[in-house]
Write a structure and sequence with these properties.
By secondary structure, the protein is mainly alpha-helical.
Length: 96
């Protein structure tokens, strides 16, 4: 188990990279692709929640961190918009 939020986020980044590499190699419409999309969505949501709760909220409590935390949270909100449309399991190997 990671000792700091930074170590946990770095581990999560590696998990995300692995899932995305596997996703790119998976066949469109396959059970594997659907499972990888689900796993990727879960990992991204867990990562986002950890950032918001344990990184950005404490930053918002400090005057010096206000701008950075606000910017990061607005980026997160912008990323959430496409995700609300749902996964596209039929996309080809390179998103085509």
């Amino acid at each position: 188990m990671p000792e700091t939020i930074y170590e946990a986020l770095r581990e999560s980044h590696e998990i995300q990279r692995t899932l995305l590499r596997r996703l790119l190699r998976s066949k469109a419409g396959s059970r594997e692709r659907i499972d990888l999309l689900t796993g990727t969505r879960i990992e991204l949501e867990a990562h986002e929640a950890a950032e918001e709760r344990y990184l950005y909220v404490p930053m918002l409590m400090e005057d010096m961190g206000l701008d950075s935390a606000r910017h990061a949270l607005s980026e997160t909100a912008r990323r959430d918009l496409p995700r609300e449309r749902g996964p596209v399991a039929e996309m080809g190997p390179r998103g085509k």
